[in-house]
Structure formats: C-alpha cells, structure tokens
Specification:
- This protein has 364 residues and is of the alpha/beta class.
- The chain is globular.
Length: 364
C-alpha cells in the first residue's frame, strides 16, 4: 500500500484545518506543525485532536533546526507550507517578521527536506498569493502575468515563489506554488475584511453593533471558498509534473458588493450614497447609516483589482472553480456568524446573571 503522509505548516489556520480534514478523508496520516505559545489558538482543529490519523508537532518557521527535526521524524511524502504572516496591513507594521516567516521560512522548509535526503520522495506545495500581482499589469491574471508586488507581504511571498522555482530547477525537486486568490470561509480570522463584514452584518441585524467602518469600498477581489481551494492544493501535488497554478474562481466583486450580499443574508438591504471617503451605506428600511468609510483602513499602497484566471487548473487538474458561488460563500459565512453572535449574547447574559447571583450570595 502506498505510504501517504502529509506535513502541514500553518495547520491551525483556516486552510490548514480544511486541508487536514480533506487529507484524512483521503486516507493520509496528517501531521501538523504548531508553535509553542502561552495562548491556545487551536480552535479550528480542536475537533481533530485525538483522531488516530492526526498528529501535532512543535516547531517554528523561524527555527530551521526545529523544522529539520520534525521533517526527519515524520518523513512526509507531501508537505503543504501554509504558514505565513498573511495579513497585508500587518506586513506594513511588521515587515521584518513578515519577511522572516513568509520568505526565509520557505527556504528553511526546502533546506530541511534536503537535509533529510527527501528531495526525490517528498512533494512540496507552497501557498503563494494573488498579492504577487499587486499593482496589476493585466486583467484577469494568470500564470504568465508579470508580478508587481505592492506590500511587504507580497514582496516576501515573491521570494517564496521564486525560491520554490529555483529548487525545482536546481535540485529536480517536486515543489510547486499555488497562486491563491482571496479565499474565505466561516473559519476566516475576524480581522480580515470579509469576516469583519459578515460579523458586523450579524451584530447590526441583532442590535449588537451600530456601524461598520471599512476602507476602500471599490477594491475588487476574486473571492472563493477556502474549503474548495484546499482540494486544488492537493491536486497540484498529484499532477504528473511539478508546475505552478493560479487558484481562483474567475469571478470578481467589489467590497461594496460583498457588503450588500452579506447584509441581505442577515435581512438588511443596504443602499450606498456618496463617493470616495464620503460614501456611506444606509439601511433601506430604517434610513439609518450603518456603513462608513474610514481613512484608518486605507493602506500605504493598495491593491485594487485582483481577478484570477483558473483556466489552467480547470483544464490540467480537473478542478471546478465554481463549486461554491460567491453568493453561497457569503451566505455560509453570515449564517455561521448570525449563530455565533446569538450564542455569544446568550453566554454573556449567563455570565452576567451568574456574577449577580454570586454577588448576592444566591449561589456558591
């Protein structure tokens, strides 16, 4: 029987959790790398812990020796490097950390594979990004579109892309990059704009928030469902030859449209009035302003027009980029966050009541 052992960096993230589930269903032994921390960030994979095919190891993308040890112990047949400081805005505040993890971290993984003499038996997937295109030079973007990175995050990821290509050619290693366009889900971090919108829609609909503040409403993105995208990651490593692929839906929407779909899914119709910094979103039913533009959320350099062409992945890998539509994706996220906000409210009320009972001596 063919040995199928996957090692995932960034296993606690959105993509890492979905990929773990996907690979376990495929019969893999899945090993994930986590960092030692006093705070536990494992909520996305908590349901997998204890599963006989799921294992966790401590290591760090900034510590080459720890990577060498884990890769030597696991002897993976496939590595999925999903670990990254992946927030574009944060990369302007922490450019050095971003470069160390997102650029040099990729090199450390490649060298750890070589140090364990697994060059010919271990296939490597690198999570690249549509941010490589940055200040876009053509629309839509495909595998041949020139790169023009426009943030410290994108510049770091560009190194990762090219070092993967270099090791593929210099050492004949099976290593590939998946150029992922924006992919979201109910497991997306709450600081990312899409999750920020769906949570705000849920909170405003339930009277827990008054207003949502955003940056450039006209920014255009190609948004897909993370659960669909991890399948394409796997397909890239099952391909006969190591190649790089764009992973996208081929459909583009603005931040403004995302807001309209999200609030509609929460039962609120939004109408936008004004332009630029003065643009506002109003609840059609009440006339109340519920969305405003804030200069705090504008980036020093902003990418405004990302739109992927998934033709190659569709033709060569047989991947379906339209498995989950944009409207379905937004609906899934809002439904989850409507339930989350309601549950959080119930938990808050229970904590308040318990505190009052304790104060009055009604319970011990």
């Amino acid at each position: 029987m063919e040995r199928k052992v996957a090692l995932i960096t960034g296993v606690t993230g959105q993509d890492g959790s979905y990929l773990s589930e996907f690979l376990i269903e495929k019969g893999y032994d899945v090993h994930g790398i986590i960092r030692r921390s006093s705070v536990d960030y494992r909520e996305r994979i908590a349901h997998l812990e204890g599963h006989p095919q799921f294992h966790l190891h401590y290591a760090d993308m900034g510590d080459s020796m720890s990577l060498v040890k884990v890769i030597g112990k696991v002897q993976p047949t496939e590595i999925y490097n999903l670990a990254a400081q992946s927030h574009v805005q944060v990369s302007f505040d922490s450019p050095e950390f971003t470069a160390d993890v997102d650029a040099t971290g990729v090199l450390r993984v490649l060298e750890a594979v070589r140090a364990n003499h697994l060059e010919q038996t271990c296939r490597i997937y690198q999570a690249s990004t549509s941010e490589l295109y940055g200040k876009v030079e053509e629309v839509p973007q495909n595998e041949k579109t020139p790169f023009h990175p426009y943030s410290p995050y994108a510049v770091a990821k560009l190194y990762g892309f090219w070092i993967i290509k270099e090791y593929r050619e210099a050492y004949n290693m099976f290593c590939c990059s998946g150029i992922l366009f924006n992919h979201e889900s109910e497991r997306r971090g709450e600081t990312f704009v899409t999750r920020k919108i769906t949570l705000a829609a849920a909170r405003i609909a339930q009277g827990k928030q008054d207003k949502l503040y955003l940056g450039n409403l006209s920014s255009l993105r190609d948004w897909g469902y993370a659960k669909d995208y991890v399948e394409c990651m796997w397909l890239i490593l099952q391909h006969d030859t190591p190649e790089d692929f764009v992973i996208a839906t081929g459909v583009q929407h603005s931040v403004r449209e995302f807001c309209q779909y999200a609030f509609r899914a929460a039962g609120i119709e939004v109408e936008f009035k004004g332009e630029g910094m003065d643009e506002k979103g109003y609840d059609v039913k009440t006339g109340k302003c519920i969305i405003e533009v804030s200069p705090d959320f504008y980036r020093p350099t902003d990418v405004v027009n990302l739109w992927g062409d998934p033709t190659k992945a569709r033709k060569e890998l047989g991947w379906d980029p339209q498995k989950t539509t944009f409207e379905e994706l937004v609906s899934i996220m809002v439904k989850h966050d409507m339930q989350k906000v309601a549950a959080d409210h119930v938990a808050s009320v229970m904590r308040t009541n318990l505190a009052e009972y304790l104060e009055k001596g009604l319970v011990k």
